[in-house]
Amino acid sequence: MNNDLTFKTLTEQYLKQDPEELMAAHGKSFYFASMIFSKERLTKITKLYKLCRFIDDCADELEKDESQLAITSLINDLEHPQNTTQFNQLVSEVENWGVKRSYLKELIIGAQFDAHQGEIKTTRDLLLYCYRVAGVVGLMMCPLIGVKNKKAYPHAIDLGLGMQLTNICRDILEDAQMNRTYIPDSELENISIEVLQKQGDTPEEIKKLTAQLLEKADQYYVSAYQGLSYIPLRPRLVIMLAGEIYRHIGVKIRKNNFNVLQGRTYLTINEKVFVSFKTLIKLGIVFFKTPKIHKKDLHTLIQDLPEAHK
After folding, report:
1. Which domains does the chain have, with CATH numbers?
2. How far apart are CA 100 and CA 113, in angstroms?
3. Mean pLDDT of residues grouped by 10 in the chain (310 residues)?
4. What is the pTM of this model?
């Protein structure tokens, strides 16, 4: 966090940044997969990434007062499209491609939760958070990659949920060192955040909880892939590859015996290439399969949110 950074200067910085360079620097796993996109689709995806990253940084990179100012301003702009602000100019561009303002608002609410260091007390709280910061990103991606059937939406949400749950497992140590934890309080019992902040051996209870979260993530990955047939062929490969790269972070965490407090787990470039070849084979197997009906019980805890149960 930069103590001298203001909402105004952050906005000016983002206006100058090239979207593709921004995603290449900060969204390495997805950018690795997205290079398969056509130039037109890649341009749209990177601009959406830039917008989402800007929202995240308004919550994460600003001091509390500036962050609150930013969040209030962004929500006001979303609710008043006629405002000729720099943010609304960015929103209008992706909105013209089919991205809904209501989804961006959910993303901002998720960012606001982080800025205020909100508490995850239950599994429902966890899934609501994952929906807001990642599930809606799946929904926003749909029109940009040519998805036309709304039956794909629950599967798109599930890919976001799976990836975010993987992120949470990967970043337990780093999040705790920023005084954040996304493991539900009801599951932590006697484990304090001070325990999660210490780099080293991982307590067995944390290993067990990490295993449970990754198992839940895998359920959402499976559901996400069951909707792949709704996606045009070329973007289908990108989406599945992005999902598999994230899923294999979870695979690597398992191989490391869930030692999540020893530092962040990530895939090397060689591992990403290996996953890419495996994904091609896997995609070939599921290519001719028709989409399966979405299991509504996966969204029981978030069914009151926009599009979550449709």
Report:
1. 1-101+108-116 (no CATH), 121-310 (1.10.600.10)
2. 21
3. 82 87 82 80 91 92 90 94 91 95 94 87 95 96 94 96 97 92 89 92 95 97 93 89 94 97 93 90 70 88 66
4. 0.92
